[in-house]
Amino acid sequence: MSLSALAIDSLTAGYGEHRVLDSISMEIGSGEFVVLIGPNGCGKSTLLKTAAALLKPVAGRVSLFGHDVQKLKPSERSAMLGVVPQKVESPMAYTVGQIVMNGRTGSGLPWRALSEKDYVIIERAMIYTDVLHLRDRYFMELSGGEQQRVILAMVLAQEPKMIMLDESISHLDINHRYEVLRILKRINHERGMTVVLVSHDLSLSSEIADRLILMDAGRVVAEGNPRDVLRADILSRVYDCELQVKHDPLTGTVNVTGVLDGFRKTSEHKLTVHVIAGGGTGIELYRRLGLHGYRVTTGVLNRMDSDAEAANALGVEAVLDKPFSAISGTAFQSALELALEADIVVVSAVPFGAGNLINLRIGEQALDAGKDVWIAEGVAERDYTEDRQADALVRQLVAKGARMWPSLHMLIKELKG
Ligand SMILES: Nc1ncnc2c1ncn2[C@@H]1O[C@H](COP(=O)(O)OP(=O)(O)OP(=O)(O)O)[C@@H](O)[C@H]1O
């Protein structure tokens, strides 16, 4: 890698108390074409915002072409970096032509008269992105895809050394999507412009990226050439779902798809899963099991618990008990009945304290009755009873044949078996 276009060193950043990036480091070489991927909310846009100095780091450093972004003047920064954001907002009164012109004059920069050369550059950017015919239209009246092309034209007119696009091709039809990619590839090859594209299209990413960077929860979890990053084991863990990854030996591209047919299979079976949860640990289970076609029951939950609200909202049959008190015998019996009627019992990673330890006994009795019982990995470590009774009970259940589930997608995969 030659001079680095973007160097991120132990960067921690977020919004107020909410830390999104967690001591993340990465380097993007000058002239590279990198695609940044990762689940919703993992921090990709936040990373772009810190690179554009729109967000100040809590700790760590971000450099553009060797310069600390926080110390660059706006004009210096815009010569180095152009950002095509995910969402575009503009005052109603701007026409497309005026917006693209901003790329040359620099929004927020001191006004300057445009030269003949500037106009040539503006026109070229508009032709490249197929927006010349929209020049006199009001920006806010355009479709989402047209707006994205206009903003791209504006950033191209800026002629930065690096361009970052935040899901900016997601609204484009297939023709314009490939056109924009061709433009980016061409400028990358011919002018050595560094390109960083954020995308959720994993297959397309494998076609265009020199290098992929996969983020999860504010960190880089894998990077390298697309074949090494787009692996079923890595992606299934990060996206927590079942995925199929196929390699095309002819083109060298990787095709990543989700799995839908499992849904049909399970919805035909209509298996019932009884979930033992609490403290919000059940919500994802109810949601995902329901989406995969299972009928879900749950309990015992206390009435104030967020799981109880979620169960109610999702139509999950639930046994509820009084808040802030130990589970009553009647509630225990009702939940046990549901568990014994179910095909499978799943225990979430609820911390089993003195008040709800008895919930684990439902799992135990279901196991004794020959049910499949699955316990979240780490549930024992979350126990906060002093004598670690939950820990001991989980070990007993595992010795008797209960199985551990490491992640929701692994659980669902196993259940579908
Ligand atoms: N302006 C903001 N104020 C508070 N929280 C924010 C703000 N912008 C983003 N967040 C939060 O920061 C986290 C990371 O958001 P970010 O937009 O960086 O994710 P992302 O990886 O780009 O996601 P996506 O793929 O959905 O676009 C999310 O939890 C989000 O809710």
UniProtKB/TrEMBL annotation:
Under what name is this protein listed?
ABC transporter related
Domain of life of the native organism: Bacteria
> What PROSITE patterns does the entry give?
ABC_TRANSPORTER_1, ABC_TRANSPORTER_2
The family database entries (Gene3D superfamilies) matched by this protein are listed as:
P-loop containing nucleotide triphosphate hydrolases
Q: Annotated Gene Ontology MF terms? A: ATP binding; ATP hydrolysis activity
Query: What is its biological role?
Result: Part of the ABC transporter complex HmuTUV involved in hemin import. Responsible for energy coupling to the transport system.
Pfam families, per database record: ABC_tran
Q: Which CDD domains match?
A: ABC_Iron-Siderophores_B12_Hemin (cd03214)
Q: What keywords is this UniProt entry annotated with?
A: ATP-binding, Nucleotide-binding, Translocase, Transport
**Which InterPro entries does this entry report, sorted A to Z?**
AAA+_ATPase, ABC_transporter-like_ATP-bd, ABC_transporter-like_CS, P-loop_NTPase
Q: Where is the ABC transporter domain?
A: 6-242
